[in-house]
Amino acid sequence: MSSLLERVQAELSTARKAQDKPALLLLGTILSDLRNREIEQRRPMTDDDALEVIRRGIKKRKESVEMYAAGARHDLAEQERAEVALLERYLPAQVDPDEIRTAVRAAMAAGATTVGAIMGRVMPAFKGRADGAQITGIVREELASLG
To answer: pTM for the full model?
Structure first.
């Protein structure tokens, strides 16, 4: 199986041949971010490193969507949403919320009583497979159901 970096490079070539300017710009930017990360780390890029860079790109774009929507720039917000959708194709399948909820309840049963303590126990199991905000939301729901 090819690495995530190779997959981005291949899709960039495909976008170039298809003259898909939005995809070309986005994938070029992500590829640049990936190469910069590789240089920073002074070692070859792993898929986990690449996923982290892509997640950061998604997070930035989601924040931009909120800002553009608040500023009534719906055209730009829609463009950012399209970029998020394109980047999310590179992420692994997300975890079922019920699986997260089960892990949160197990951490609570083991004595974790604060958001931080529960997150500390649960996050390592879902690193790269679930959004931290989603996990935090489930933790808060479960804590609220207790009290």
So the answer is: 0.70
